[in-house]
Design goal:
415 residues, alpha/beta, L-arginine/glycine Amidinotransferase, Chain A, three-stranded mixed β-sheet, binds N~2~-(3-carboxypropanoyl)-L-arginine
Length: 415
């Protein structure tokens, strides 16, 4: 049976605040803070536990080898000799944000009725540009079944940031849907990370039958929406978006209604929640999920509850007749401080769980085992002036190895 499975990136042992992402206001503001990798990873596990308790199917993606010595070797150096900036770029735990791992077109949407995944090249940010080879290796393991087609990255210079700029609307998960590819344009002070050329290439290679290409508004990029999933999220036949998310909104909504007449658009007006508050609260970086009862839940970060205008809007929506029937609040503050909310931490795949390598699927008992490894091996904290410390690097490398061994995903250890 085709169902939606959320694959969360397990937050890696090198999680730290190096301020590497220009245009990501939280990450820039928190540069230099002392990070708590163990707390961070346990927050991520708790979020997954909560989703399982809601009756949702849950998978994992794994922390990458960090520092990325292969990438450094390609730059003719190694970790000990690298500059402080290169060290931070090689050590980043950014693969935790699984929404940026790949773009996924579920089987009902594609010409050959296979589920297509294209690994994201993430070329805009140096610290993320070297994620794709290991992500691809993980995807090829998890989705080796012929029900899937796993594609390599779109070639540079066309930036692709994966599912963070891709939404799918469909009457049901297992019915044909319309896929929305949101791209940015230069013009704001911050880089547009998703290029239209990349989105179009992916839609072509996946054989997507109904695709819309929509430009992100310049004001949202300028306000810090470095990915569309900071200002919009979709599930089933519901699009939940900020009024200022898209450049040519009227045309987009008209095209969307033509493609999916039953679509329900829930728009938050700027007069009630300004772009800045939407981005600070990460209201839209929520998981919008259909529960087994058929009801839709919005899984928001604690930061959304802390802002009165945001929380009031949400409560009014629930009290009214809107399609979102339930609110869940999760604490992923360590990730949030780097600009990654509940939605950033997961990659959605619609598939039959029986076609997925079971090592990448989790239940509550497996999460307990993972949490025990994190509690034992993940560093309690990392300060920026420790990035050059060989003892820290040993701890980070050993922690990942312990996790992969426990999960028996040993193919990735010395890939
Ligand atoms: O790419 N932060 C990530 C956050 C990604 C959020 N993902 C989605 N919106 N889907 C980024 O900007 C900060 C790392 C640092 O600065 O050290 C970082 O990479």
């Amino acid at each position: 049976m085709q169902t939606e499975i959320n694959f969360d990136g397990i937050i890696g042992p090198s999680h730290n605040y190096a301020g590497l992402s220009h245009g990501n206001l939280a990450a820039t503001k928190n540069r230099g803070l002392v990070a708590r990798p163990r707390t961070a990873a346990l927050e991520g596990v708790a979020k997954m536990r909560g989703n399982i308790a809601l009756g949702l199917a849950q998978g994992i993606l794994l922390p990458h080898a960090r520092p990325d010595q292969r990438w450094l070797a390609g730059l003719a150096t190694d970790y000990s000799a690298a500059s402080p900036l290169l060290k931070a770029q090689a050590l980043s735990a950014s693969p935790m944000w699984a929404a940026n791992a790949a773009t996924v077109s579920p089987a009902p949407d594609t010409l050959d009725r296979r589920c297509h995944l294209t690994v994201a090249n993430l070329v805009t940010m140096p610290h993320r540009s070297h994620e794709w080879p290991e992500t691809l290796a993980q995807l090829r393991l998890a989705f080796a079944h012929p029900a899937f087609a796993v594609h390599g990255p779109v070639p540079a210079p066309f930036g692709d940031e994966g599912a963070a700029n891709h939404m799918r609307l469909a009457p049901a998960h297992d019915a044909p849907g319309v896929e929305i590819f949101v791209y940015g344009d230069a013009g704001s002070p911050f880089p547009a990370r998703q290029h239209r050329e990349a989105s179009e290439a992916i839609a072509r290679s996946h054989g997507v039958q109904q695709a819309l290409f929509v430009r992100q508004s310049e004001e949202s990029i300028a306000a810090g929406a470095f990915h569309n999933d900071v200002v919009a999220v979709a599930n089933g036949r519901v699009l939940f978006a900020h009024e200022q998310a898209f450049a040519d909104k009227d045309r987009f909504y008209t095209d969307l209604r033509a493609a999916l007449p039953q679509v329900e658009i829930v728009e938050v007006p700027a007069s009630q929640i300004g772009l800045e508050d939407a981005i600070r609260s990460y209201l839209f970086n929520a998981q919008l999920a259909t529960l087994p009862s058929g009801e839709m839940a919005l899984i928001v970060p604690v930061e959304a509850r802390a802002m009165p205008n945001v929380w009031n809007w949400l409560e009014a929506h629930i009290a009214g007749n809107g399609p979102i029937r339930r609110l869940e609040v999760v604490d992923v503050r360590q990730s949030m401080a780097n600009g990654g909310g509940p939605a950033c931490l997961r990659l959605r795949v619609v598939a039959d769980p029986a076609t997925i390598d079971p090592r990448f699927l989790v239940d509550a008992a497996k999460l307990d085992r993972i949490a025990a490894i994190i509690a034992r091996h993940w560093p309690e904290q990392i300060a920026q002036d420790e990035l050059g410390d060989p003892a820290l690097i040993r701890t980070v490398e050993e922690a990942r190895r312990a996790l992969l061994e426990a999960l028996e995903i040993v193919e990735l250890i010395d890939r």
